[in-house]
């Protein structure tokens, strides 16, 4: 239970992290997808409350902003730093230096504007009949991507927040995260949940491989970038699928209600 509370406290502003407990974050990472489900559930409730009073585009903007606030912009900050480092650096040393630089460069600004536009407009195009299920699911799959990248690629720094997730890694942590994300995908949007999960996994592998080729490994900022790009990719694919087959993301739970 402490590991779950640590995961929630680390990845969100929710005040549930246990006090006076060693930061055994390696075990907490197993619950990253579950934290995503919790965050998605909050978004779904907000959507239900605000949908009658806000137009679709404004509502989607509020929801994306709410997710950033709920996560203390942890992942968005990593995405911005990664844009500056991976696109603006020319040597491994310079890229790692940029990742530690608190200043924001042009690549970060351009990248975050493009990312937010994609996330907001994609979310606005999710139809009402499946909207709640997609809202709950997409943060879960993105955090599965973080967990997967932690096992696929070495952590490049000897010190840093991400090192806490490397010491004490166990196979059960990845397995639990996999089962959580897979079960959530299938229960919330049916068979297409497997496809969306595969996409999040591909994004995690692709960005992790690219970052490793330039940095020699990944960092906490790269984890944040994987999360943000995975969220956008899952939303975009959901829109594409629904535009061609409106019932493609059909939850088995609907038939049980």
Question: Would you give an account of this structure?
Answer:
The protein has 257 residues and is mostly helical. It has one domain. The chain is 74% helix and 0% strand. It is built from twelve helices and no strands. Helix 4 crosses helix 7 and helix 7 runs parallel beside helix 11. The longest helix is centred in the middle third of the chain and has 25 residues. The mean pLDDT is 92.
Please write out the topology:
Layout lengths: L1 H10 L13 H4 L3 H19 L5 H15 L3 H15 L3 H9 L5 H19 L3 H25 L18 H19 L2 H24 L4 H25 L7 H5 L1
Helix pairs in contact: 3-4, 3-8, 3-9, 4-7, 5-6, 5-7, 5-11, 7-11, 8-9, 8-10, 8-11, 9-10, 10-11
Structural class: mainly alpha
Largest sheet: none
Low-pLDDT residue spans: none
Q: Look at the structure and give the mean pLDDT.
A: 92
Tell me the domain tally.
1
The tally of beta strands, per DSSP, is 0
Number of discrete helical segments:
12
Beta-strand proportion: under 5%
Percent helix? over 70%
Give the quaternary arrangement of the chains: single chain
Please trace the helix and strand order, writing H or E for each element.
HHHHHHHHHHHH
Features:
0% strand; 257 residues; mainly alpha; globular; 12 helices
Provide a short characterization of the protein structure.
It is built from 12 helices and no strands.
């Amino acid at each position: 239970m402490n590991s779950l509370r640590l995961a929630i406290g680390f990845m969100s502003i929710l005040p549930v992290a246990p006090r006076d407990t060693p930061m055994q974050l390696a075990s907490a990472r197993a619950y990253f997808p579950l934290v995503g489900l919790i965050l998605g559930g909050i978004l779904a409730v907000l959507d239900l409350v605000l949908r009658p009073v806000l137009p679709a585009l404004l509502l989607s903007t509020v929801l994306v902003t709410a997710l950033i606030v709920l996560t203390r912009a942890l992942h968005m900050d990593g995405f911005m730093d990664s844009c500056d480092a991976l696109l603006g650096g020319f040597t491994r040393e310079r890229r790692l230096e940029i990742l530690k630089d608190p200043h924001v460069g042009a690549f970060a600004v351009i990248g975050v504007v493009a990312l937010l536009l994609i996330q907001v407009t994609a979310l606005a195009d999710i139809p009402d009949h499946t909207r709640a299920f997609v809202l709950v699911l997409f943060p879960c799959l993105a955090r599965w991507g973080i967990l997967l990248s932690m096992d696929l690629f070495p952590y490049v720094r000897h010190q840093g927040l991400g090192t806490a997730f490397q010491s004490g890694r166990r196979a059960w942590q990845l397995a639990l995260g996999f089962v959580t994300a897979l079960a959530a995908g299938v229960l919330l949007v049916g068979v297409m949940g497997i496809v969306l999960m595969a996409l999040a996994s591909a994004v995690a592998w692709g960005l992790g491989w690219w970052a490793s080729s330039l940095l020699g490994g990944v960092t906490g900022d790269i984890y944040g970038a994987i999360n943000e790009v995975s969220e956008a990719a899952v939303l975009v694919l959901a829109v594409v699928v629904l535009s061609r087959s409106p019932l493609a993301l059909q939850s088995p739970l609907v038939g049980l209600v």
